[in-house]
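Hey,
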Amino acid sequence: MSHAPTTATRSSAFPDDEPLERTDSVEPVDLGRWGRYLRGPELRCAQTAAGLGWDPTETVVEPALADLDFGQWRGLPLAEVPESDAVRWLNNPEAAPHGGESVHDLLKRVDGWLAGLRDSGERVAVVTHPAVIRAAVVTVLSAPARSFWRIDVAPLSYTRLTCGGGQWTLRETGHPVIY
C-alpha cells in the first residue's frame, strides 16, 4: 500500500520525512488476514499504518521499504531542481545528481527484499512509498529500469504481488483503498 498524501505529493516536491497532509484521510480498513505487517521507516508510513488500524506493537519497521533517497533534493519543489539534472536523472536509472540513491540502486534494494520473501509462504502487508512500489513492479515484471517512471502509484492505492514456484507475479496494482 502506498502511504496517504503529504504536502510533497500534492505539490510536486521531493519528499522529506514529512507528516501526512491530513491524518484523518486514512481510516481503518479490512484488507484481509496477514501474517506480518511491515512499513517504511518514515513518519508518513507510520501515520498511514496507524490510520489503517495496524497495531504499532505488531508493525515492523523495514529499512528496505524506505523511500528513494533524494539526497540534496529532499524538500525541494521540482521547479527548483536544475533542468539538466532532472533530465539526466529521469533518463538514466544509474544517475544520482542529487547525491542520493539512483533508481538502479533502489531497484537492487527492493529486489533483494523481495528475494528474502520468495517462497516464504507468508502473507505480508506493507505500507511504503510510490517509488518502492514502482521498483517492486519493475522487478516482478523483469521490466527495464527505464520503465520505472512509467508506473503511476497514487496515494492510498494498493498493489498485490504473489509468489509461487520461485516466481513473483503482479496480481493487481493501482487500486484505491475502499472504505
